[in-house]
Amino acid sequence: MYYTITTITTVGYGDITGTNSIERSVSAFLEVFGVCFFAVVSGKILNILGNFETRDQEFRDKKELVDKMTEKFKFNR
Question: What is the pTM of this model?
Fold first, then answer.
């Protein structure tokens, strides 16, 4: 089980490995936890960056609407 989890999480085996069942179990748990933590943090960062683009698009849409209204009703800038 330890080698399967280590391979799937792509952590690698390194120079130090668990020598008994408890050490291998703790290592496997920490590997899975580390991968999940990395995934959550990466997802949060991408979500923040995605929100910037959404806000930018909303601003452009509102600016375009104001420009159209200005042209339609012949407002001075």
Answer: 0.58
